[in-house]
Amino acid sequence: MLKIENLHAEVDGKPILKGLSLTVNAGEVHAIMGPNGAGKSTLGYVLGGRPGYEVTEGSVMFDGQDLLALEPHERAAAGLFLGFQYPVEIPGVSNVQFLREALNAQRKGRGEAALSGAEFLKLARAQADALAMPQDMLKRPVNVGFSGGEKKRNEMVQMGIIGPRLAILDETDSGLDIDALRVVGDGINRIMRGEDKAVLLITHYQRLLDYVKPDFVHVLADGRIARSGGAELAHELEREGYGAVAA
């Protein structure tokens, strides 16, 4: 599904990714772990197409397409979803309005018919219920006044409505208490577990991986994959730290 080869990227002229290669197949969950400054968030932003992140070498193929040649909205329509470490607030725009426009724009990009208001509301309410999010939060401005945990839960509702093929989740566990962590973990499993879907889960800690069991764990250090293994590698990182494991 996703094939990254020798990816180099820089921000403001500073090299961040320095030859990263990674293959993610359909049906797999890959966890990316590593110390601050290793390039984890940069990887997510490059894949999502965030401005200011310049690819200087390498290639990224997504479902047979040159991902780097696509605009951000085209990447989204192709099935890529990027979850943020710090979801942004959008005053004056309700969740319902934002999500309906986003979903129908992607459906249009794929040549599919737009959902009617009634069809969309049924879908949105079902996803909110599945994430134990109060219905009135769908009417509120996007993330405005939400706690950290509510923002992450809202982002899972967004992901459930959009229904991507590849989810890149940047530190989704950040700011979550134990109960919210379980709800979010269950949401990722419900929405993204499937033979035609995949997850790239960027995290500092092993705790989310107790709920979202990864097929592979990769240690990112100095802009490259320094080591890969199974779920046991995350436990080793918890015990030994990044320095010992990535050396």
TrEMBL record:
Residues 2-247 form the ABC transporter domain. PROSITE patterns: ABC_TRANSPORTER_2 (PS50893). It comes from the Bacteria. The keyword ATP-binding applies. The keyword Protein biosynthesis does not apply. GO terms for molecular function: ATP binding; ATP hydrolysis activity. Belongs to the ABC transporter superfamily. Ycf16 family. NCBIfam families: sufC. PANTHER family: ABC TRANSPORTER I FAMILY MEMBER 6, CHLOROPLASTIC. This is Fe-S cluster assembly ATPase SufC. It comes from Sphingomonas gilva.
